[in-house]
Amino acid sequence: MTGIAAALEEGLLILTMDEPERCNPVGHAVRRRLVQLLSDAEHDRAVHAVVLTGAGGHFSTGGDIRDQKAVTNIAEARDRFSVVKDLVGRMVRFPKPLVSAVEGWAAGGGFALALACETVVAAETARFASSFGKIGLIPSMGLLATLPARIGFARAPYHPRLGNDRCAGGVPPRLRGRTRTGRWSACRSQGFRRHCGRSCAFAEAYVKDFLALEVDRALEFERQIQPTLLFSADALEGRAAFFEKRAAVFRGE
User: Fold this and answer.
1) SS3 for the chain, per residue?
2) Can you give the pTM of this predicted structure?
3) Which residue range is the domain that position 29 belongs to?
């Protein structure tokens, strides 16, 4: 089970993280499946735009902590983060409109996944949080670069440190009217080509590539550091506290 449902509707590929009973965690299998689906969509002429969303009223509450139990050493963890680097790098360079449609919670890795999309469309119910510190980890999946790019470097450092920090945003008209019908994505895709022409499309690709360089830096830093943190005493305590539904006691070890 990969937890991803894919549906093509009039040129709009809708990718739905589909494990609503667990608020759509982004585990290793989900990340690998997203890499494959985006790779296929990039080269499929029938796909004009892609929307990433979540089932059951939430986008995603982030990485699958249960999934982390399958990782037994730092080298294996770094291999997994290579998949993360491939996924996010592919998303920030995606040559077609890539939209995250967010309802409910987008937390941790879910927050990062939403921000890796070119455009974020948030429903009135949308809530965003960076909660990596609660389990003894640094922000992951490119968030070290994508969050400052969205809200500015002056404000960004405060967000990852505050696990319960949140913001809500509503973008009228309704979320589903903007994304699931494909109107916004199709309009953007067709209008860009009609008004700007081929040379502008090339220029946009270069701009995306430049902006992605900082994300690459963040992803490589994560790949080196996060696996070590995963096996730290604080991260083990963070995971134990999560499952025991209590406050973690970190000792800086």
Assistant:
1) CCCEEEEEECCEEEEEECCHHHCCCECHHHHHHHHHHHHHHHHCCCCCEEEEEECCCCCECCECHHHHCCCCCHHHHHHHHHHHHHHHHHHHCCCCCEEEEECCEEECHHHHHHHCCCEEEECCCCEEECCHHHHCCCCCCCHHHHHHHHHCCCCCCHHHHCCCCCECCCCCCCHHHHCCCCHHHHHHHHHHHHHHHHHHHHHHHHHHHHHHHHHHHHHHHHHHHHHHHHCCHHHHHHHHHHHHCCCCCCCCC
2) 0.71
3) 4-185
